[in-house]
Amino acid sequence: MSNGTGTAGKTRTCPHCRATILQSATVCPICRKSLRWDPHTAKHKPPGFSALAVEGQIRHPGGEPAWEYSMLVSIKNEKGEEIARQMIGVGTLNPDEKRTFTLSVEVSKPDSGLSKLR
Questions:
Q1: Residue 20 belongs to what domain range?
Q2: Of 13, 22, 27, 44, whose Cβ has the fewest other Cβ atoms within 10 Å?
């Protein structure tokens, strides 16, 4: 999704896993494969920070039938309007099983002098 400010927010498809990723990415956040060699980022992590990190667990207490779960993520703009909604995964939690869910939002500035994409 583009926000209309130059190349910030411009997306492309990862050639390895076909996920939609930011054009500025040097490593795919999904498959973690390298997308291009950039001498400026080869030795250093691109400038950025983790704006949000949440981790939680659910545990089936046992003594009752299996549970089903759905992991959903939604993104809303400043007006509270939903601009993206994605089903991440579904599954079953049997008695005495647990699942850990992690959500992170990484923020970075796109590099205006990006080297050629592979």
A1: 11-108
A2: 44
Secondary structure (3-state) at 117: coil
Tell the burial category of 23 from Cβ atoms under 10 Å away from its Cβ (0-12, 13-18, 19+). middle
Provide CB contacts within 8 A for 30, sequence distance 6+: 14, 17, 19, 21
Per-residue pLDDT 10s for the chain (118 aa) are: 444 445 777 888 888 888 888 887 878 888 888 876 655 554 445 567 889 999 999 999 999 999 999 999 999 999 999 999 999 999 999 999 999 999 999 887 776 444 444 3
Whether 3 is covered by a domain: the verdict is no
Q: CA quadruple 35, 2, 55, 47: dihedral positive or negative?
A: positive
pTM: 0.63
What DSSP line would sit under 103-114, residue for residue?
EEEEEEPPPTTP
Give the CA angle between residues 81, 86, 89 to the nearest 5°: 150
Residue type, 118: R
Rounded distance between C-alpha atoms, residue 60 and residue 94, angstroms: 7
> What is the rounded CA–CA span in Å between residue 108 and residue 16?
22
